[in-house]
Amino acid sequence: MGTLPERKDIPPCVKAPKDLKDPEVLQVQTQLLEAMFGPAGSRIPYIEQVSKVMLELKVLESSDLTEIVVYGSYLDKLRARWMLQSMAEWHRQRPERGMLKLEDAMKALELGPWMK
């Protein structure tokens, strides 16, 4: 991955070409992307600005995964990677938490034996 990214609009916080070498790469389920980045990636510019990194998404054709490539200084890349992994995990577990809450609510509403 020693090549420069295809993207033309490099954020000002990313120092080219030094910060464009050795990017951090993580894989995320494609179905989580909209929850993480908003419709059509609308939150990506904000995340880049706050994290001081540049993000590039690459859909892997052979699976349901997408690579998130993070460019920036060493510490900024690590922080952004940790944040993105945490966001992905939170969104992945969200439906599970919803089902658990629903089960708890249904148990709380169960009718007593005299009402059956």
UniProtKB/TrEMBL annotation:
KW RNA-binding (keyword) present: yes
Q: Which UniProt keywords apply?
A: Cytoplasm, Developmental protein, RNA-binding
Predominant location:
cytoplasm
User: Annotated Gene Ontology MF terms?
Assistant: mRNA binding
Identify the residues that the record assigns to the KH-like RNA-binding domain, covering every copy: 11-94
Statement: the UniProt record of this protein carries the keyword Ribosomal protein: no
> Which region is the signal sequence?
none
Which InterPro entries would you find in this protein's record?
KH_dom_type_1_sf, MOEP19_KH-like
Compartment(s) where it occurs, according to its Swiss-Prot or TrEMBL record:
Cytoplasm
Please name the Gene3D superfamilies in this protein's record. Answer: K Homology domain, type 1 (3.30.1370.10)
Q: Which GO terms describe its cellular component?
A: cytoplasm
SUPFAM superfamilies associated with the record:
Eukaryotic type KH-domain (KH-domain type I)
Pfam families in the cross-refs: MOEP19 (PF16005)
Any one biological process term the GO annotation gives: regulation of gene expression
Record function comment: Involved in the maintenance of embryonic stem (ES) cell pluripotency. Dispensable for self-renewal of pluripotent ES cells and establishment of germ cells. Associates with specific target mRNAs.
As for family, the record states: Belongs to the KHDC1 family.
> Can you name this protein?
Embryonal stem cell-specific gene 1 protein
Q: Which gene encodes it?
A: LOC118356111
